[in-house]
Amino acid sequence: MDLDIKIDEAGTEKRGFKIRLADLKRRINEFFKNPKKRLSFIIVVGVVLIALFALGFYFLTHEKYNIFSDNDPLIDGEEEGETLYEAVLDGVMTDSDSANKHPLAIMIENHTQARPQAGLIKASVVYEAMAEGGITRFMGIFGTNDVEVVGPVRSARPYYVDWAEGYNAYYAHVGGNATALDQIKADSVLDLNQFSYTAPYWRDRSSDVSSEHTMFTSTSKLRIQANENGYSTANNFTRYKFKDDPEKGSEAAKTLPQAQKITVDISSYNYNIYFEYDRDSNSYKRFMASKAHNDRTSGGQITPKNIVVMTVNRSPHTTRINENGWLMDTIGTGKATIFIDGKEITGSWKKNSKSDREIFYDQDGKEIIFNRGQLWITVIPPDSSFSTETTPSTNLETDTFEAE
Hints:
Layout: E1 2-7, E2 13-18, H1 21-33, H2 35-61, E3 75-76, E4 83-86, E5 93-94, H3 96-99, E6 104-109, E7 125-130, E8 136-142, H4 158-165, E9 170-173, H5 178-186, E10 190-193, E11 201-203, E12 215-217, H6 219-228, E13 241-243, H7 251-254, E14 259-265, E15 273-278, E16 283-288, E17 291-292, E18 306-311, E19 314-318, E20 324-328, E21 332-340, E22 343-351, E23 359-362, E24 369-371, E25 375-380, E26 385-391
């Protein structure tokens, strides 16, 4: 380094220092020849690179920061400045926060003492399948709607875990059989087992029922726990395709059937179900044990917009601790019958792996496009049966359809 003296036009002396290039190279070489200094430099650079990578990964995987999200606004709302988004789970047009909530799977029981259940009416997707003893069980996938009371919450089974993994869902349950619990651990499911996390759960003992029918939760409490656990919020599951209801007075609306009844014989009277098509709302009213299936909190009848009867092979199963139950072939393909707009579509389902969501196709191999709203999936074995009775539209000019 040399002293640099310059005289400006006014005769004023200015002093500074000039670093020679050769001198700079010499100092750098001396620095890296020192092992301790060289190691320190490598550590500092490594820490900076790791921090930058972690920061970039965080922004890419968190929905609200993800500039590559394909959930763009599709329609403006009625109020000035309001923009509606297509919900990732059920296609309902809503605000951005509601549209992009991470899937939350909750096990809900269906013993006769557990009825009426709370919260199923607000689920985006519902799976219904056999547990044991001819008793069915539900798994509600919640996203678009927050629900302050959900339950009664019951235990896990392996095939429900398979379906939940297709959404990378937060999975809420109260214990489970040994096979299901082993799978949850082995597959690193985003678990919210009540045995491990008691804060989101409580018991409601206001009814005279056995203790196992008294456990309840809420979607907001479960999401708080998932956040505290550091669980992912990225919606990296396959999304279904959705459409609007037929417009009022359109030709499509006029051809909707006057009535349709879908009857599914699952096991016995208490668990057999049927759906009645409601032309005015273009949806399906659910009945169980010949009674309207109503919500515990609101009293409203469960009325999904889409119905799927999915046929799945099953086999008896004994867990490592000698619990008797079922295994179901959730991976692969099988028969599915889809009901939309009062129409019956003979098709199929396909699920490539536990981490994939099942996709539904028509008889020509085209992916099903669902109506916006709740999807109800009833899973039956090949030896169960269902039937359909349809009253066609009269196709009169007076026939109109009030879309939701």
